[in-house]
Amino acid sequence: MRIVSGIQPSGRLHLGNYLGMMRPAIAAQNEGETFYFIANYHALTTVSDPSALRRNTRAAAIDFLACGLNPDRGALFVQSDVPAVTELTWLLSVITGMGLLERCHSYKDKLAKGVASTHALFAYPVLMAADILAYRADSVPVGRDQKQHVEVTRDIAMRFNNLFGDVFAIPQPVIRDDVAVVPGIDGQKMSKSYNNHIELFGTEKDTRARIMRIVTDSTPLEAPKDPEQCTVFRIFRLISDDDQIEEMAERYRNGGFGYGAAKKQLFDAVWSFLEPLHRRRAELEKEPDFVDGVLRRGAERARAEADSVLGAARRAMGVD
Ligand code: TYM
Predict the structure, then answer these.
(1) What is the pTM of this model?
(2) How many whole angstroms from 8 Cα to the centroid of ligand 1?
(3) How far is residue 302 CA from its own chain's centroid?
(4) Any idea which architecture 192-282 has in CATH?
């Protein structure tokens, strides 16, 4: 089985990225051959500062390794190190209907948020389709916000195969229900662009401050509370084991447990969960040659695969 996914280096990664995509992607290394990349060409649609993009691209790769990605079990690389993907994007564009792209929520959301309306922003899902199809992905672990993009990829691949013969594998999005939409500190989907995120590698002070700012309702301290309605609990349950979850849920239901105390308990859980990752990350920062080697080997592996798929697509279309 082939497993492919990417992450944009449009800022520092957050708990939503980790729980929604990185943790399942790392676990999937036991199930098949993995191709994971840092999507710097996608990030160009919203990031215009070259040094920030360069810095965040490398930081995201180190983050992925610090979170437990095993570079011996799959390729980790930077999207732009595989030129065949952008070439494939053109071949796929030729058969992608405007209507298919016009329906994409992510494009409409970004326009609503004031992102400049460019051809690249509109064509973003075609580049993503090329990313996925170039490595013959069977499965694509993502959060729910990326589901439509994987469905667009399936449509494009099926259309191509119908017109030109079976070149592409048809991928499946793999979305874990419990972490499909990790809430941010305001209860909406955690996202850097809503500024409601908890960074994976933020400082202890910043992490605590963010958690203490989680929005809660005005139920008095002594009143019983429904844990499911509370963002503090909804985040806590994603990083805790069954006993810890049940214990906290009981406290909510019994009353006499205030949101301040819940937030403190959440911070302790988040921090004890993040601390080992921070330690590993600090070690990796001291080994730039190791990181370079991982990304170089990953790109070589990815190029071999993408070149072969691109060759098949070109032959099928008559541009060989
Ligand atoms: P990106 O960089 O926005 O997010 C990376 C991954 O994190 C997931 N995610 C979340 N999951 C649950 N809850 C949240 N609050 C949350 N926030 C983010 C996203 O669903 C995603 O899986 N277009 C992609 C990057 C990409 C890609 C690809 C993905 C480029 N090419 C090919 C898969 C396959 C993106 O912008 O993800």
Answers:
(1) 0.96
(2) 7
(3) 19
(4) Orthogonal Bundle (1.10)
